[in-house]
Amino acid sequence: MSFPQTRLRRLRRTPALRRLVAETRLGVDDLVAPLFVREGIDEPVPVPSLPGVVQHSRESLRKEVAELVDLGIDAVILFGVPATKDPEGSGASDPDGIVQVALRDLRDDLGDRVVLMADLCIDEYTDHGHCGLVTPDGRVDNDATLEVYGEVAIAQAGAGADICAPSGMMDGQVLAIRDALDEEGHEDVAILAYAAKYASALYGPFRDAVDVSIADGGDRTAYQQDWANAREAMAEIREDVGEGADMIMVKPAMTYLDVIARARAEVDVPIAAYHVSGEYAMVHAAAERGWIDGDAVALEQITAVKRAGADMVLTYFARALAERLQ
Ligand code: PBG
Fold this sequence. Notes:
By secondary structure, this protein is α/β, with parallel strands linked by helices.
């Protein structure tokens, strides 16, 4: 043949050539490690549906975060498991609540070497398991919940959080939190809005990790998004950016790569994606059976999330990937 034939395989011939032309690079500094800290325990407690993940004690959390920072991970996001729960989720805004105590520990230990994010929600702290206050007729009360979120934000910021990450999907939550933070002089605390958070069936292992079950067989479909919708996700994202979100999140990750890509095309703020507990558990379960190579699939999936447009990925694989990417 005399005409030039397209030879895309030329640049795939050696590992060095492939690295040279790689369009997406996953770095340790793209990873955010989600961590659980439980009140009133002395030893870490494993979470059976999340192999390798534990509910940390205060001490074991300090050790883990110091090691993650040494591995090059810049940020962690904390979830608290309180010793007692009540209808208002009061442990979430208690200055001595478990996440606040843990934030102070980590700031004391590590100063500005680590970015401390705090998930801002009350479902881990409420006895009914909902992300907001529940009315006598069983609805989640949007506007009453916003006041509570403001108090949680102030407690987290006061304890040293760099970033509050509201995950409750109440309308107006970013604005309410921004106002509350600013009023208390926490203008420098940033907001990472879980903007497009779907009512996904992939959160099951997380709920084991935080001992949450939703009362009366309920679910979160009245506040989290319907997974049929992508345009609506853009409305959520625009709304949150308009209210002052410094960064936005899409969650889960793999089932919503289209949403990540659309968000990347539409907004300029940094985008996070959360590779959630069910996504992690599926990879582990299949790998345990020898059906897939778990390490390879983890790297492929998290790289794909970045390729779709995320700037950072929250993932339970953070430590394993950081060790591998050294
Ligand atoms: C709510 C919250 C949830 C997750 C993060 N924040 C659970 C939910 O919405 O029910 C899930 C994360 C995961 O599955 O890894 N505080």
